Amino acid sequence: MLKLTHAHIIGMVIAYLIGVCLVPLVISFSKKEGLVDVPNERKIHTKPISRIGGVAIWASAMLTFLCLVLMSYYPSENLLSGILLGGSLMFFLGLVDDVYNLNAKFKLFLQISIATLVYLLGVQINNVPFIGDIGIFSYPITLLWIVGISNALNFIDGVDGLAGSVVTVNAVTLAIIAVAMTPPNHVSALIGFILAGSMLAFLTYNFNPAKIFMGDSGALFSGFLLATISITGVMKAATLAILLPFLVLAVPIMDITFSSLRRIAKGQSPFVADSEHIHHKLLHAGFSQKKTVMIMTSVAIIAGALASLFMGSSTIKHYFMYIIAIVVIMLILNYLKVLTKK
Q1: 216, 54 in Cβ contact below 8 A?
Q2: How far apart are CA 157 and CA 97, in angstroms?
Q3: How many other C-beta atoms can be found within 10 angstroms of the C-beta atom of residue 215?
């Protein structure tokens, strides 16, 4: 029987309330300091937009954990500290990149270093279906997953509200599956719900027309958390269920895979930015930004539903209950944003 603890929902609500207060402060600060994303031929926005939304996302998540400590809800789990440490390091790396535009190879080296640290702290992929224990291959596979998913979120962050919407759906899906596993992993679920709450607060100001972008800091932090909670919450299982994160994270995985292969086929570095991502192709096909977000978020929801269905009727029931609530909240936030423009 799927059962959510009070801490999950409380954490999500606290993260949203903190985040929705922090984002306007970040917007104001970034404009004063010139930390804005300037339009160019590759980008679709037409005016400078704050590019350090990750500050609000990270801060609201960390402050939520502090609140849970004060409320005696903080779980005792050794992997949690490693995930929060690694996530914070990824955030700071992304923030420095947002401000100083780091060299791609140097940034990749630091991402691998952070992933290595987290691996040594116990966040590891050790088993593969039909093979079992993968031994020495555990390290490279874990690094590929963490670094790949972290960057995948950065790849799809090209349309107002897209990355935030996909992250929210993915985080809630992984959280619900983590609770449904045997044994359940409430720590991974808690991180997922807190990330979803933080991201909903960010989306309040990121839906088209956006007032703030998450930047590399927000994308790397969010992608890192999705990658690690999928390992600790799902991939620890010795069954085919460990493949579910590939289904849940189908949208970012498809985009980074096709983008990397396309660039390599052209003789380019997979880290060279272009305007041929899936969301760009939808825009070029005539879809608006909002419809593009709806299409790709719908794919994420369907993928999450299939993954939840694999876990049983109780899981899919809870999945739809929470996803419907999340979608309604997103629609309300988007509607309120439209009203404030009038």
Answers
A1: yes
A2: 15
A3: 27
Q: Which residue has the tokens 């895979």?
A: 257
Contact between 116 and 246 (Cβ < 8 Å): no
Q: Which pair of structure tokens corresponds to residue 6?
A: 């009070």
Q: What is the pLDDT of residue 138?
A: 93
- Reference 63, options 39, 43, 88; nearest CA is 88
User: What is the distance between the alpha carbons of residues 342 and 271, in angstroms, rounded to a whole number?
Assistant: 40
Residue 300: name the closest of 292, 311, 312 by CA. Answer: 292
Q: What three-state secondary structure class fits 212?
A: strand
Q: How far apart are the first and last CA of the chain?
A: 47
Output the CA–CA distances (angstroms, integers) from residue 204 to 9, 11, 104, 164, 283, in the order listed: 19, 18, 31, 10, 22
pLDDT class of 3 with cuts at 50, 70, 90 = very low
Residue carrying the six token digits 């991502």: 277
Q: How many residues are given for the chain?
A: 342
What is the identity of the amino acid at 290?
Answer: K
As a whole number, mean pLDDT of residues 297-302 equals 96
Q: Which residue intervals of the chain are DSSP H helices?
A: 6-33, 54-70, 78-100, 104-120, 138-155, 162-180, 186-206, 215-233, 244-248, 250-265, 278-284, 289-311, 313-341
Q: Residue 217, Cα to own-chain centre: how many angstroms? A: 11
The residue-averaged pLDDT of 23-28 equals 95
**Beta-carbon contacts of residue 163 (< 8 Å; ≥ 6 apart):** 153, 156, 157, 214, 218, 219, 222
**Which tokens in the block code for residue 72?**
């005696």
Sort 54 into a burial class: Cβ within 10 Å, 0-12 / 13-18 / 19+: buried
Q: Which helix (H) or strand (E) holds 133?
A: strand 132-133
Distance CA 49, CA 263 (A): 28
